[in-house]
Amino acid sequence: MFLNTLSGRFLILTVVFVMLAEVLIFVPSVARFRQDYLVARLERAQIAALAVLADDMIDETLERELLSTAGVYNVVLVRDQSRQLMLSSPIPSPVDATYDMRDPGPLELIVDAFACLMSPGDKVIRVIGAPVRHAGQLIEVTMPAAPLRAAMIEYGLRILVLSAVISIITAFFLFLAVRRVLVRPIARVVEAMTRYAEAPEDARRIIEPSASVVELRQAEEALRALQTQLTAALRQKRRLAQLGEAVAKVSHDLRNMLTTAQLLADRIERSADPSVARAAPKLVGSISRAVSLCESTLAFGRAEEPPPSLQRLSLAQLVSEVIDSEALAMSDGARVSFIDDVPAGMQIRADPEQLYRVLDNLVRNARQAIEAAGVPGEVRISAREDEREWIISVSDTGPGLPERARDKLFTPFEGGTRKDGTGLGLAIAMELVRGHGGRLELAETGPGGTTFVIRLPKSIVALEAAAE
After folding, report:
1. 189 in Cβ contact with 219 (< 8 Å)
2. What residues form DSSP beta bridges with 33?
3. Greatest CA separation for the chain
4. 260 within a domain of the structure (yes/no)
5. Which CATH number do you get for residue 261?
6. 221: how many CB neighbours lie within 10 A of its CB?
7. Which comes out higher in pLDDT, residue 81 or 191?
8. Are 27 and 42 members of one domain?
9. Mean pLDDT (the chain, rounded)
10. d(Cα 374, Cα 211) in Å, to the nearest integer?
11. Is residue 196 included in any domain, yes or no?
12. End-to-end CA distance of the chain, in Å?
């Protein structure tokens, strides 16, 4: 579990990278150790050779002691262009390799060092070097390779242990530093988010930025701004929900009252009094609009629309019903023509009742926009399809949508384009289309008219997900 934490992983990475750095240091260090070892043997051999030069009459016992002290089998010294065997003893095996230590390159030293480590056994090597203090032109010794390899392994193990200790100590202190500088502030942010999630409407739970690290402080400030906006939005939603519940109750009772008033207005409309007969249609229209407003508010105030009952249907037939309904609702003197441009055989998969409501909302808005302009116009409903979706367009030749209405076109109670409108029609239509897994879009609007596009997916998966 610890290894899955930020602290644990950082600790492991620190150890790994410190060990890697130590390995990069270890390679030239071992090569350097081998060079120093061989140079030391050459210097010892030179001292032994000088002892021989000082006294030619040394006995065999002293000669063996000098060779043992130098750690070599024999010593050859080149002086005054002559090669002299200064000290000698039996060599147990032929010379396996020769190394010149007079001017070796770094890469050569590294390669030779690892070749020595990888070559076990009691081999004999020849080492050539330059005598110190210009005591000759060249000194050459033969020596066993096993002691050199053992010394290199011992040195390498010491370096390894030292590297491990350094890695652990470094990782420990870095662990403490990271935990203090990064992990604790991150944990504090997570704790603040968890505490805020328990009661997001409580403004006291909004985080107060306190991190000293610039990036973490920016994250805390961004979180505070997000929490502040969310808290304000939740409070507004709660107030709107309470207001919506109250409006729904009022609308329900008001609708019942207005229904009775509408019946009475119908009777008044049949009165023989000319003044009453003239006022009655206006009264009936006002009451009808009030009833419609109440019904729209109640419909939108429901918790959610029921999932669509998807079935195959004839789009041309549904569009024809919408056009007939709107033609009957058209006011006297209005010069609005409806054009049905839907292919006769087009079959789509949708909820007929919900799609009717969507089209009816769009066509009614288009008709009312043309009537409000007081000029002749037309409303066209067209449809096409491709491999992925059915595309239904509702366009008109009206004056276009005002700028203020475009920004909040699908927002309830805010996207209305008429003075007496509620802005619920397009919001409900958008919700119904989304329930089908589709999209309702404003394709274009301007002085030449407005076009809305409905896109319904053909994918069964998308439709089933929408229904759920």
Report:
1. yes
2. none
3. 162
4. yes
5. 1.10.287
6. 14
7. 191
8. yes
9. 80
10. 64
11. no
12. 39
**Local structure of 414: helix, strand or coil:** coil
Distance CA 42, CA 3 (A): 52
Model-level pTM?
Answer: 0.42
Strands 336-341 and 377-385 turn out to be parallel
Q: Coil, helix or strand for 398?
A: coil
Question: What integer pLDDT is reported at residue 461 of this predicted model?
Answer: 53
| CB burial readout 372-382, b (16+ within 10 A) else e | eeeeebbbbbb
Determine the 3-state secondary structure of 317 from DSSP: helix
CA angle 132, 136, 137 (to 5 degrees): 100
The candidate with the shortest Cα–Cα distance to 452, out of 421, 424, 426, 422, is 426
- Residue 19: which of 201, 167, 152, 157 has the closest Cα? 167
Question: 33 lies in which domain range?
Answer: 2-170
Q: 299-357, pLDDT tens digit by residue?
A: 555 545 567 888 999 999 999 999 988 887 776 667 889 999 999 989 999 999 889 98
- Take residue 234 and report the two structure tokens written for it: 């939740």
Half-sphere exposure for 240 (CA within 13 Å, toward CB): 10
CA distance 203 to 246: 26
User: For residue 344, what is the domain's CATH number?
Assistant: 3.30.565.10
Between the alpha carbon of residue 322 and those of residues 184, 329, 339, 344, 449, the distances in Å are 64, 11, 12, 15, 20
The token pair at 81 is: 């262009």
Task: Please indicate, yes or no, if residue 276 is contained in any of the structural domains.
Answer: yes
Read out DSSP for 97-120?
EEEE-SS--HHHHHHHHHHHHT--
Query: What's phi and psi for 190, nearest 5 deg?
Result: -60, -45
Residue with tokens 């049949």: 270
Please enumerate in sequence order all residues whose Cβ is within 8 A of that of 207, keeping only pairs 6 or more positions apart, or say none.
189, 192, 193, 196, 220, 223, 224, 227
| Structure-block tokens of residue 262 | 């509408």
Least confident of 59-63, 248-252, 366-370: 248-252
Domain count, the chain: 3
Determine, yes or no, domain membership for 65. yes
Tokens in use for 333? 């003197």
Residues sharing a CB contact under 8 Å with residue 331, sequence separation 6 or more, in sequence order = 371
